[in-house]
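Project standup — Tuesday

K.O.: blocked on the structure for the chain from last sprint. Re-posting the sequence here as requested.
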Amino acid sequence: MTAKVTGVSDFPDAFKEQRNTSGIGQMDDQNDPVNMLLGLKDVRKAAHNCTVFQSGAKPGRIVIPSEVAIRETRQIPFEVDPPEHGGFRELLNPWFKRPLDDAYQASLQQIIDDTIDCALRAQSLDIVSEFALPLQSKALTLLLNTTMDKAQTWIDWGTHVFRSEDSDLDGDKANILYDYIDHEIDKAIANPSDDLYSVLLAAQVNGQKMTKEQVKGVMILTFAGGRDTVINAITNSIAYFSENISDLQRIHDEPEIINRAVEELIRYFSPLTQMGRVATEDTQVCEHAIKADSRISLCWASANRDESVFKNPNNVDFDRKVNPHVSFGFSHHNCLGATHARQLLRQLVLSLASKVASIDIIKADENIEKLGEFSRKVGFNRLQVSIKAK
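H.V.: unblocked you, prediction finished:
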């Protein structure tokens, strides 16, 4: 008899000691050091202060690990600061709010139901590569308003479009995405449709027609920004319910708690550890000097476990009434795809609650991020499970 795998739903707080002593951590990233802001108050304050902590630095530099070596295209609106940023958000927000529409949700529900039903028919499966990745890719066809057959290409890319098993920064793999987007943009120019490429190519922002390079920047962000994060959120939620099946049954019995439940899962797991900014001037955070043109990180994962804000932060609590987590960022650069991600998780969790009786973990390979002085579990490289129907 195979021993039961346990502890998969435990995601320790890697930052507690440093957050409570100095409030800041350090890590090196390709010889471009990063000062990590760890407390919720400091993270939110810096995220809001785009004058001192900019996003519009050299393309790729605010990402951790830095992508300066593998791209020159500026991701939009992610790497644009106000006031220009506002014009791009004004254009993009209505499109990325479409997951609130009934027709969108109905199509998404069909994708979710098909994915769960396939999992229930399997003796076992890897939730990362055989469940979360296909679900994320198929759901993305709705967000782009394109055909479902394209999803298989995206599935073949794997769980991260910039990283491989051998490297956190795989330039060859990144070029596959860039070439793909260039090709899709050229197709949309030749034969416009109602997909996101065509909408952007026909749009004006801040009084000027969008360029091909700007369209490419939006599309790189759309493909890369919500890929491994959504996959982590799906996989980690299933890992949680495998050891807390009564919480899944509670959601079935009390569907009105679904919004609180999803927000709490997102807070606890923090699918994206951090995001960077570049200082425009000499300044100070937590009594630490920050030099002009140096990098800071807004450590969402640490801020979401801040004991001064969250009671029992290392527990998942679906009755948490106040939950100002920053898993989707904060201020003007809050995540453009948050509506899509939230809706996907709400419908997925409700469907799991309706269909699933048990989730047994067969094998778990944890994905541990090495962040200077910290090591943080962010998800799983593989999570083999057996799911039984009600």
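K.O.: great, moving the ticket to review. Residues 195 and 231 are 23 Å apart (CA to CA). The longest strand covers residues 356-371.
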